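Annex B. Sample input.
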Amino acid sequence: MNKTELISAMAEKAGLTKVDAHKALDAFIEATVENMKKGEKVTIPGFGTFSVTERAARTGINPQSKKKIKIAAKKAGKFKMSKSIVF
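Annex B, continued. Sample output.
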């Protein structure tokens, strides 16, 4: 499912126009990213938790030259699905 398909599904299930569903999805993404940039978790009960994790600096290997390279520390987004979601 891509963003356009998600917007269509949201509009249909919530009884919204596609324009309103698009605005709602964009607002959700913006609010989630803003909070994650602050280092805060975003928890949606019954769905999951978005959080930020820190990756330590490490040494890697360039697959072409086989030389060791330094990989800098960085922050990465993480999503943990709710236990109530069963496939």
